[in-house]
Specification:
By secondary structure, this protein is mainly α. The protein has 7 helices and no strands. The relative contact order is 0.12. The structure holds fe (ii) ion (2 copies).
């Protein structure tokens, strides 16, 4: 079994993207927008986990899910409060621009969670991987936040909870599915991988679409504009006489 760890290290992929994360988080406006989005993700995740507490028939899981949901709601509040503090000192409140959401997503990916109809084992496998991803990313976000100690402290505090969530979900998965918990983890991993691919593809498609439209604008539009101008020059200005044969019927438009 995957042994529970007290602390999660960032994955190689998250570590590799550290310079990108540093760049994304350096800008105050971008930081505000990202913290607000993280707040929404955490609160939505908390709501889903609350629903999981309602539908599970396992009393221990119900109690753990309730505590987990309360943690996620608290994370949402922490992120929102920090975003509000930053907004007070931020001159501009523009939400435009590149936020790199597909490169630096909210921690969990809990937005992919479908609670109703999920078995406890699938739920735990999904939650474990989501919390593990959150712990990995929040470790990197905390490390690149040296220039902003209060935001760094928020990540530090939340990271502590995410590590607990990561560990308890794995232990509970091993309890409810002692023999096949590995298989469930792999299935959940493949599902996450597919969703990550779709997210990445959507982000890339957005960038490629913008590039293609820009190229089309500058490459295709000028010839058409030139042809339209030339045609306009060839038109006679003012009223034009219509030959008598074309205007003797009032029953049709032309
Ligand atoms: Fe969280
Ligand atoms: Fe969590």
């Amino acid at each position: 079994m995957d042994s529970p760890r007290l602390h999660e290290r960032p994955t190689a992929f998250d570590r590799m993207l550290t310079p990108v994360h540093r760049w994304i988080w350096r800008d105050t406006d971008r930081r505000v927008q990202k913290l607000l989005r993280f707040s929404e993700t955490e609160t939505d995740g908390g709501r889903d986990i609350l629903r999981a507490a309602e539908v599970t028939s396992d009393p221990l899981l119900r109690r753990l899910y309730l505590e987990h949901a309360i943690d996620e709601f608290r994370h949402g509040v922490l992120f929102r409060h920090r975003a509000a503090e930053l907004l007070k000192v931020s001159a501009s409140r523009s939400s435009q621009g590149f936020h790199g959401d597909w490169l630096a997503p909210g921690g969990h990916g809990l937005d992919d969670l479908q609670v109703d109809g999920e078995s406890d084992r699938n739920m735990l496998a999904f939650l474990h991987l989501s919390e593990k991803a959150a712990a990995s990313r929040f470790t990197v976000y905390r490390d690149v936040m040296q220039h902003d100690p209060p935001t760094r402290a928020v990540f530090e505090e939340i990271l502590h909870d995410e590590t607990f969530h990561m560990n308890y979900t794995l232990m509970q998965l091993a309890r409810v599915e002692p023999k096949r918990h590995r298989r469930h983890l792999w299935r959940a991993r493949l599902s996450r991988l597919w969703k990550a691919y779709l997210r990445l593809a959507t982000g890339l498609a957005g960038i490629l679409g913008s590039m293609l439209l820009t190229i089309q604008y500058f490459a295709l539009l000028p010839p058409f504009a030139w042809l339209a101008k030339r045609a306009a020059h060839q038109e006679r200005s003012g009223w034009t006489m219509v030959s008598p044969g074309h205007s003797d019927s009032l029953d049709r438009q032309y």
